[in-house]
Amino acid sequence: MTIFETAAQTVPSLLFSDLSMGSVPYFPVTFALAIHSLRVAYDLKKTFFSTGHLSFWQESFVMMVYSFGGSAVAALLLGLPQPWLESNFLVPLNFAVYWLVAYMPGDLLFNALQQFGPYTDLVLMTIDGLVKGYSISTGGVDLVAVTLKGSAISTSLIAMVTIGTVV
């Protein structure tokens, strides 16, 4: 079996796993959040390294806004509960990933990511981009059409595009 066949069999099982943000499985948390958190934390560490550090709490707040901003705005627009409040592990996972990248003694994880330079950026951004594309369809189109089924907004193309863009 080639690596591509293995990936083709593994990725759908990761994306359609039972773990989700709250009771509505509209975002594949198992794989997506870890990659997204790692990419955001890595980019923030590079930014703060070049422009100067803020306090731990300020940097953590920036991390949370970058991580949950789109889903928070989408939930507000649709009148749904905040996904990051529905799950017991989203915020701790984001804090843990950010702490590992930004504050690990000796900057071990950050230096390991930096060691492979452009390849790390390419891999993290590619996977994060694929996950974002998936979340646009499930977090935008499917969220509006399926979750709000029966309401006037469930058939609105404008709502689907808007929520998909915000997510």
Word description of this protein:
The chain is mostly helical and 167 residues long. The protein has one domain. It contains 8 helices and no strands. It has helices at residues 3-15, 29-51, 56-78, 83-86, 90-103, 108-115, 117-147, 157-166. Helix 2 packs parallel to helix 5, helix 2 (29-51) crosses helix 7 and helix 3 (56-78) packs antiparallel against helix 5. The longest helix has 31 residues, at 117-147. It is globular. Residues 14-22 have low confidence and may be disordered.
Supply the number of helical segments.
Answer: 8
Mean pLDDT: 77
User: How can the largest sheet be summarized?
Assistant: none
Bulk shape: globular
Q: What is the H/E string?
A: HHHHHHHH
What share of the residues lie within helices? over 70%
How many domains is the backbone divided into? Answer: 1
Q: How many beta-strand segments? A: 0
**N-to-C terminal Cα separation, in Å?**
36 Å
**Strand percent estimate:** under 5%
Uncertain parts: 14-22
Keywords: Membrane, Transmembrane, Transmembrane helix
Transmembrane segments: 24-42, 54-77, 89-110
